[in-house]
Amino acid sequence: MIFGLGLPWVPETKDQARSTLRWLREGSFDDDEIEHEFSAIIKNVDEYHQSGGNWLSLFRKKPLFARLWRATLLQFMASSCGATAIKYFLPWLLEQHGISSHTTLLISAIESTVKIGFTVLEMFIIDRFGRRKCLVVGCVIMAFSLLINGAVPLLDPHRKSPATDVICVAFIFVYVIGFSLGFGPTAWVYNTEIFPTSVRARGLNFASAGAAVGSSIVTMVWSAGIGYMGSNIYFIFMAVNIICIPAIYAFFPETKGRELEDMDALFGAIETRRSDFDSRMNLSFFRETGISNPSLGLSEHLLQDDSPFRDSIESAPETNRNQGHEPSIIQ
User: 43 in a domain, yes or no?
Assistant: First the structure.
């Protein structure tokens, strides 16, 4: 319902897109840089629409498949870290710590509110610290919280101290904070950034299958293992979070500060068209060389700058052209 109410305000025209980009980049980029990025976006959208991307292209083209398996793995890790089990079994977990059924409903509502609040906080820090750091910090927080929830009941198996239950419940909330600062929102942001426009929806849909598989495995393992293993079940998911840390650094390059159109270079696209090369040139190059119109590509500027030289060559006598001059590099 919320999405439906917001649809009338979704920008659709190029002018609205330019205004949105200007609002996003205000304070970090000047007008020329914003206009350059906008032109690159329009150019790439048109090219991707003409490329005819489909489901098979996600598997046939290596650059797209490199994105696909990473996005699927990231969603799988986000579901396998234990968040699904904590969410599904939270009322039962709270009851095991001596909390009444009525109070568990209230605490569950507070847990959802905390998750939303820290997800909003993530919006302000993800561009400052980067995607990988947010993912890794989230894994560290979750692993430590699961360690506490697994170890404390073993130290006080009969729960003689009220502090045992208080600590466990408190670190369930710490775990939720870690998920909200890490996998929760960051996995979706990362996956949205890496796919080109033509296959983004298909890529995200397929990647969500990884989340479904991870959720199913976690639910089955937790429901079957909690009765036999007790609090030791937390150590399994702690290990999963620890394993995720080197996997993040090994397989997921940082996308902070990169334009959506730069992902081809980041993930090793095989072919780069001249227009792509032009659109990715740093604007500072144009400024340093005195080029006043960065909306033109580099090749067009070189052709313009070379035209006087070519004209002088063509107007010279044939003998002079053959003996005294080398032909222009650009034909």
Answer: no
For residue 65, give Cα distances in angstroms to 21, 56, 203, 291: 29, 10, 9, 38
Residue 314 reports pLDDT greater than 60:
no
Domain boundary among 258, 282, 309: 258
Q: Are residues 126 and 240 in the same domain?
A: yes
pLDDT tens digit string along 109-151?
888 899 999 999 998 899 899 999 999 999 999 999 999 999 9
**What are the start-end ranges of the H helices in the chain?**
2-6, 14-25, 31-51, 55-60, 62-80, 83-96, 101-129, 131-155, 162-181, 183-194, 200-229, 233-251, 263-266, 274-279, 283-288, 298-315, 318-324
Please give the tally of structural domains in the chain.
2
Determine the average pLDDT of the residues in 168-194: 93
Amino acid (1-letter code) at residue 222: W
Asked if residue 32 is part of any domain, the answer here is no
227 and 154 in a common domain: yes
Query: What's the token pair of residue 320?
Result: 């002079």
Specify the length of the chain in residues: 331
Query: Taking residues 211-229, what's their average pLDDT?
Result: 86
Residue 288, sorted as left (phi over 0), alpha (psi -120 to 50) or beta, turns out to be alpha
Question: For residue 306, what are the domain limits?
Answer: 274-324
Which residues are 26's β-sheet partners?
29
- The C-alpha atoms of residue 186 and residue 24 are separated, in whole angstroms, by 18
pLDDT, tens digit, for every residue of 286-305? 444 555 554 444 444 444 44
1 SS3 class: coil
State whether 201 and 75 are in the same domain: yes
State the sign of the Cα–Cα–Cα–Cα dihedral 195, 196, 197, 203.
Answer: negative
Kindly state whether residues 223 and 97 are assigned to the same domain.
yes
Same domain, 129 and 191: yes
The encoded tokens of residue 54 equal 């489909």
